[in-house]
């Protein structure tokens, strides 16, 4: 009986101690509540990429009283070799600390030490130190491309639909490019935020008839090591009826003012094909 009372008192004391202790509410790239000397795993990031750690400035003091503007800044006080960081601006809420991974960082798990600062200890909070871990890998997104067999006319763009599923914690832009086509097919910079999936329209074209085996590549703007590719085929035909038919399959033609006429011709061409073939 006496042992149970002692254990109950010890448990109650521990709960009260935690309840009155200062904490850091992490809001990104994951959510967590951390006390002094706590730790958390943030997720995956690629070599050379940057990411933000967001922390709420609200906390409690030693008496358990909520302090809305308790932490004045969040910074990384210890980083792996070759990494860099930017301390959050003073009195920003949520606080945002930027971390940049070394471009030559090898695959593996890395540790960082973060500190929430109460400048001058004005609120009586002192400082709070926690550890954060990330997994460095080039496998930070999944790529999907469709369709893989395109038909269009000379200099008439055909649309590839590029889906990027960003499984990492970086919001750095991605670059879409294509090889294997004659002429100037421009690169396109897009943003797929961390933990989101987005689909982008990427037009391809060629100025000469033929069958082209193209290679579409999506890479991180921060590192050439982070990339995925898809192979597709583009058939360019001279037939005007092919151009009309392509419009019916979603191909964008230029100039825009002719698109309604192309759409009508596509419909007529389809009817004619069904009647006489």
For the sheet with most strands, the description reads: 5 strands, antiparallel
Radius of gyration computed on alpha carbons: 28 Å
Task: Estimate what percentage of residues fall within beta strands.
Answer: over 45%
The CATH architecture category of the largest domain equals Sandwich
Low-confidence stretches: 1-19, 248-277
The CATH first-level class of the largest domain comes to: Mainly Beta
**CATH fold assignment of the largest domain:** Immunoglobulin-like
The helix tally amounts to 3
How many strands appear in the DSSP assignment? 19
Count of domain modules? 3
Proportion of residues in helical segments: 10-25%
Strand order of the largest sheet: 2-1-4-9-8
What general outline do the C-alpha atoms trace?
elongated
**Alpha-carbon distance between the two ends:** 94 Å
């Amino acid at each position: 009986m006496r042992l149970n009372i002692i254990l109950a008192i010890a448990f109650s004391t521990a709960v009260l101690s935690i309840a009155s202790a200062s904490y850091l509410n992490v809001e990104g790239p994951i959510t967590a509540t951390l006390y002094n000397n706590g730790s958390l795993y943030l997720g995956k990031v690629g070599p050379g990429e940057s990411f933000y750690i967001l922390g709420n400035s609200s906390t409690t003091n030693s008496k358990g009283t909520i302090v809305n503007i308790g932490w004045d800044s969040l910074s990384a006080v210890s980083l792996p070799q070759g990494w860099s960081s930017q301390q959050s601006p003073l009195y920003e809420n949520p606080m945002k600390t930027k971390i940049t991974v070394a471009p030559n960082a090898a695959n593996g798990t890395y540790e960082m030490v973060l500190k929430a600062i109460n400048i001058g200890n004005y609120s009586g909070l002192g400082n709070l130190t926690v550890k954060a871990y990330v997994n460095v890998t080039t496998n930070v997104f999944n790529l999907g491309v469709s369709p893989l067999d395109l038909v269009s006319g000379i200099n008439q763009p055909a649309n590839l639909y590029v889906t990027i599923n960003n499984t990492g914690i970086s919001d750095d832009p991605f670059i879409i490019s294509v090889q294997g086509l004659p002429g100037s097919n421009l690169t396109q910079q897009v943003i797929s935020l961390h933990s989101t999936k987005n689909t982008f329209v990427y037009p391809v074209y060629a100025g000469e008839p033929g069958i082209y085996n193209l290679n579409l590549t999506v890479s991180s703007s921060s590192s050439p090591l982070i990339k995925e590719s898809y192979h597709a085929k583009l058939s360019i035909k001279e037939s005007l009826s092919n151009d009309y038919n392509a419009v019916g399959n979603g191909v964008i033609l230029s100039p825009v003012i002719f698109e309604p006429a192309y759409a009508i011709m596509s419909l007529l061409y389809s009817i004619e094909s069904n009647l006489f073939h």
